[in-house]
Design a protein that fits this description.
The chain is an alpha/beta fold and 283 residues long. It has helices at 17-25, 45-56, 91-106, 129-147, 165-175, 185-190, 194-201, 230-237, 261-282, and strands spanning 3-6, 30-34, 61-66, 113-119, 152-156, 180-184, 205-209, 246-248.
Length: 283
């Protein structure tokens, strides 16, 4: 299974070529870039051009990009109206949100990547046909835009009624849009459980987000620091090792704030080793 890392771990700092150099030195063959404007400002052509030049001369590839969650540079702290949701029922509000996502898809013209990871609604959102209709309209438009740039949109399971594993399958059934998925193990742990979510989505999983939590909050902890049964989780994931990468999406950890990038990446490599050792023990 290919090791991959989301830049979500460094989302509170600007994504630079120096940071990419350190990730490449840590021997990660693939990454997911998290599109938060304080990290990757998808509106900043200069930043995109600098990164594109770096990737043209690198063997490390971009497996995926995560669609933005907010329009501001402060994780949504500058106002309630900064959240981006494709289930927004009012068209006049939804169109600018779709345009933000399109900007991240345009990056594929200079930095090729396979998948855009997209949330269906926001955390805690209830199921409703207005939300389904809005998402259907949004995704129809985005799918065409993405396809022209060689990108496939993957829907991610998140903690809401629309986006549990069963919810994603129901959405596919209602809309006939036939999406594939990114399985977030931490989110699954908050919903129906990792094994159940995996069994529901398995044929359509094309990427993963591997992280841990306490079963109560979406914390994106390092594996083995929360309550997920990692032996059972890896038994699921190792059953289709060529279908998706083992991609860690971890939170900024305050205790590691002053530890330095190489140290953080070394800790990530240890987590990969430990997960793979679990696989070997089970076989």
């Amino acid at each position: 299974m290919i090791r991959a890392l989301s830049t979500h771990l460094f989302a509170n700092q600007k994504l630079t070529t120096a940071l990419l150099d350190q990730m490449q030195a840590a021997e990660f063959p693939a990454i997911e870039i998290f599109c938060a404007r304080q990290h990757l400002d998808y509106r900043n052509r200069k930043q995109i051009a600098e990164l594109a030049l770096w990737f043209r001369n690198s063997q490390m590839r971009v497996h995926s990009m995560h669609a933005p969650l907010f329009t501001d540079e402060y994780w949504g702290k500058s106002g309630y109206d900064t959240a981006i949701s494709i289930t927004e029922p009012l068209k006049a509000k939804r169109i600018p949100m779709i345009d933000e996502i399109k900007r991240t898809l345009e990056i594929a013209e200079t930095i090729p990547y396979h998948y855009l990871i997209q949330h269906l609604g926001v955390a805690g959102e209830s199921f409703g046909m207005r939300a389904v209709d809005a998402a259907f309209t949004s995704l129809e438009e985005l799918m065409i835009f993405a396809r022209h740039r060689g990108v496939e949109i993957l829907l991610e399971n998140i903690p809401n009624e629309l986006s549990s594993a069963e919810g994603l399958l129901r959405f596919n059934g209602l809309t006939h849009l036939d999406f594939n998925f990114c399985l977030d193990l931490g989110h699954a742990h908050l919903n129906e459980g990792v094994t159940n979510a995996y069994n529901f989505l398995q044929p359509r999983i094309r990427s993963t987000h591997v992280n841990d939590n306490d079963g109560e909050e979406d914390l994106h902890w390092f594996p083995f620091t929360g309550t997920i049964d990692w032996a059972a989780a890896m038994t699921c994931l190792r059953s289709q090792p060529e279908q998706y990468p083992l991609l860690l999406e971890l939170m900024h950890i305050p205790e590691l704030e002053n530890a330095g990038v190489p140290f953080k990446l070394d800790e990530v490599r240890k987590v990969f080793d430990k997960l793979e050792e679990l696989r070997e023990e089970d076989e």
